[in-house]
UniProtKB/TrEMBL annotation, chains A, B:
InterPro entries: Nucleoside_phosphorylase_CS, Nucleoside_phosphorylase_d, Nucleoside_phosphorylase_sf, Uridine_phosphorylase_euk. PROSITE patterns: PNP_UDP_1. NCBIfam families: euk_UDPppase. Pfam families: PNP_UDP_1. Substrate binds at Q260, R262. GO terms for molecular function: uridine phosphorylase activity. This is Uridine phosphorylase. GO terms for cellular component: cytosol. It comes from Pyxicephalus adspersus.
Length: 354, 354
């Protein structure tokens, strides 16, 4: 331990990019208390959920893991423009069973209308209104038990949405909720238009983890998605038999250009060969697509007892190029694929089809 | 060097959160070639700009630092729904002198209308149309030489926008462009409604740097903003004399809840006391406000020869609480403050006022 401490301190001196500090690197292992690597220290954070513990979760409620919340006289979900005093959240959201999230507000409105029809709800669904109309940070639509929410682009944007969504579902006393991110992505070594169901999200170094900065510490979180749900979704897609669908690792990056090895950004300091070497290494590590939200989505859902899946269509094969050049019509059809798959899944879950 | 290498390797074995790899930590120093800390190695990246080199920049064009761009037959700015073959970028944007960016699309539309009036342009400005209407990722409006663009929330979201904006300005051959982020933030130890002009962006560990992952390496970038521009803006605010304005450090985080020490997220593993200790430490390090975009904004603008400023109003004092509880009317007035300040600055630059 002394040797480790001294190695840490010596590293810190000459790697300004690190500045580790005391107790900086912490790990949250599934099913064990959080411990800090470096200086072993138990955090006040409760044990994270067991793998597949969700299926044995006795009450099915969404967990918030924050002892301070109960002390708040009112909880304002600022980025949704909703609150516990201004809105009757249990009556608005108590019946939610499926939450579908995606980057683009327009796409999520389209999805809500599509689900309205697929579920055979009254009316044509074109009058569905944005529940978050008081803000332009996110859009939210409800079609029966299905909530559709936009989350913008990137980890920080989806993370704000997830904090407020998880609190919303908690305040609403929603039970047995399944959450699915339906998005777009870049593929690696697979045909454009292929739908990838994520088994685990990995970072830019192909590590199956998400690093969350909490105060001045880095906590490492589990990024596994729900295995049974992923397999169930793959079966649904095989039944549709309309487009290729696979299960694979998804790489989640903080950046679309330099961070994904693109040669067409405003900044690029690497060669074509270095780019290919990196993407081939990703392929070898099991990565089949790249996007920008899956890791924090997996980590937060895992911690809060939400059965979660990530289902993204690939708009291009990054081994063939960087620019998205397909026609608008082709891209629009690709983007419908995860929606079709999820609609089939939800209808089956609700016994509206076989 | 051998000792350092062995310390790195031993660290890597027992700190799964690090996985440094060879050549992982790189530094880009202002005015010197990029070097890797750990294994000294010159990257193919060109030297970054000197401090204040912008003022001596001879042609005033926006730099892209990507040798591959010239080889593209067409550059599709996907998230703007613009392109070099489909749009005449020089005639659309060649006269741009000021770019103002902010998170919310509605706020940036309001700002464009406001600038339309402030600049005395023809018409009432209410018919200004979204140049990026073909996509809902970003919104863009033009009022004479002023471009207003929304960037969503968080580093990844603004970074995509900046890559495409910098390429757009490059293709358009715009010259002598000043770019200003006008946003909202949480204050530390200052009165809500105070406008903070950033001198330097720091990360969650109070380090004046931005870490960019490029392929499997971490490159550290300079996050200084343009000092003369900041001072100029402060003088403008003193002339308005309508609201408190200061120059200070801005902390830029990847997360709004745990990453900013909030006690009201879905997840919180720290005590009230630990939160205060962290925020006090930030205050002691010169941090006066916290937001989620300034570091990558400063780093990218610095590298590409854009004179850049960050001007954010504070919506609350984080030492007093975490929830944004002010009335809609008060918040709306606060959000107008950076806009008023920038309008004054632009009018002065264009000699429309003294």
């Amino acid at each position: 331990m002394v040797a480790q401490e001294s190695a840490l301190q010596s590293l810190q001196r000459w790697v300004p990019g690190l500045n580790l500090g005391q107790d900086t690197i912490c790990m949250e292992f599934a099913g064990s208390p959080s411990v800090c690597v470096g200086f072993l220290r138990v955090l006040p954070f409760p044990p994270t959920s067991q793998k597949h513990a969700l299926s044995t979760n006795s009450n099915g409620f969404v967990h918030v893991k924050n002892p301070h919340l109960d002390l708040l006289p009112e909880d304002i979900l600022y980025h949704f423009d909703l609150g516990t005093k201004t809105h009757d959240l249990p009556s608005m959201f108590g019946d939610v069973k499926f939450v579908c999230v995606g980057g683009s507000p327009n796409r999520m409105r389209e999805f809500a209308r599509f689900m309205h029809k697929e579920l055979g709800l009254e009316g044509d669904g074109n009058n569905i209104t944005d529940i978050c109309a008081g803000t332009d940070r996110y859009s939210m639509y409800k079609s029966g038990p299905v909530l559709s929410i936009s989350h913008g682009m990137g980890i920080p944007s989806i993370s704000i949405m997830l904090h407020e969504l998880i609190k919303l579902l908690h305040h609403a006393k929603s039970r047995d909720v399944t959450i699915i991110r339906i998005g777009t992505s870049g593929g690696i070594g697979i045909r454009p238009g292929t739908v990838v169901i994520t088994d685990i999200a990995v970072d830019a170094f192909f590590r199956p983890q998400f690093e969350q900065v909490i105060l001045d510490k880095v906590v490492v979180r589990n990024t596994e998605l729900h295995q049974e749900l992923a397999e169930n979704l793959l079966r649904c897609s095989n039944e549709i038999n309309d487009f290729p669908t696979i299960i694979g690792h998804t790489m989640c990056t903080y950046d679309f250009y330099e961070g994904q090895g693109r040669l067409d950004g405003a900044l690029c300091s690497f060669s074509k060969e270095e780019k290919f070497e990196y993407l081939q290494k990703a392929y070898g590590a099991g990565v089949r697509n790249i996007e920008m939200e899956s890791s924090v989505f997996a980590a937060m859902c895992h911690l809060c007892g939400l059965k979660a899946a990530v289902v993204c269509v690939t708009l291009l094969d990054r081994l063939q190029g960087d620019q998205i050049t397909e026609s608008h019509a082709v891209l629009a059809e690709y983007q419908k694929r995860p929606q079709k798959l999820i609609a089939k899944f939800i209808r089956k879950q609700l016994s509206l089809c076989t």
